[in-house]
Amino acid sequence: MQSLFKYVDDREQKNAARAMALEDLLIKKGLITQDSIDTILEYFETKMGPFNGARIVARAWTDESFKQYLLQDTPGAIASMDFPTGMAGAEGEHMKAVANAPSDHNMIICTLCSCYPFPVLGLPPYWYKDPSFRSRAVREPRAVLKEFGVNLPSDVQVHLWDSSAQIRWFVIPEQPLGTEDWTEEELVKLVTPESMMGVAMVEKP
Question: CA Rg, the chain, in Å?
Fold first, then answer.
């Protein structure tokens, strides 16, 4: 989101180099091992990430009873699905889902830091942790959403949900028109992390 927060072009490369230097130092000091790092990376690449959230959203789109269960008891609904062990841990202890509707649009933020539902959304992007996003989203949510490409009619209410150590929110976006007969497997491919954060809409290809 460089247009929104004006990040320098080489930010990714600089941060990657800084992370590698820190990693090398910790390994040399014997505080961590390469195996432990590889295990953590593999965990977030294969077990905890937005692919889980996409499955949850697709199930909610195709099963109204599951959607209501998800909204009323998010941990219980997630536990009823076939997910890896650990969905209730690693930043997922107290997850809560909210659903977009024609008259309501939800967006998640974390005003204090960067609390995030890792099991369903993966690791938070740079801009989510940026103080500019965190403060502007509270003051002018419609303007921020517009910069992300989400232009809402004036009669649509915007709801902000502030994640914290006590509760971590994610959004069930609206199902795009024309996909009502699609299977869960087909719908999963449409769902993005940004749509589950409320800063993007799900579009039919």
Answer: 18
Task: Pull the structure tokens for residue 105.
Answer: 């649009």
Residue 103 is a catalytic residue: no
Residue 88, phi-psi category: left (phi > 0), alpha (psi -120 to 50), beta (remainder): alpha
From the list 36, 80, 113, 135, the catalytic residue is 113
**Predicted TM-score of the model (pTM):** 0.85
Q: Is the pLDDT of residue 114 over 80?
A: yes
Question: Which residue is catalytic, options 3, 36, 65, 110?
Answer: 110
The yes-or-no answer on residue 65 being catalytic is no
pLDDT at 122 over 80: yes
> Of 3, 80, 103, 115, which residue is the catalytic one?
115
Whether residue 115 lies in the annotated active site: yes
Domain limits, the chain: 9-46, 49-197
Residue 2 has pLDDT above 60, yes or no: no
Binding residues: 110, 113-115
| Span 50-64, pLDDT tens digits | 999 999 999 999 999
**One-letter amino acid for residue 156 of the chain:** V
User: Which CATH number is 49-197's, of 3.20.20.100, 3.90.330.10, 3.90.660.10, 3.20.20.140?
Assistant: 3.90.330.10
Q: Is 163 a catalytic residue?
A: no
pLDDT in tens, 9-52: 777 788 778 878 888 888 888 888 888 777 767 766 667 789 99
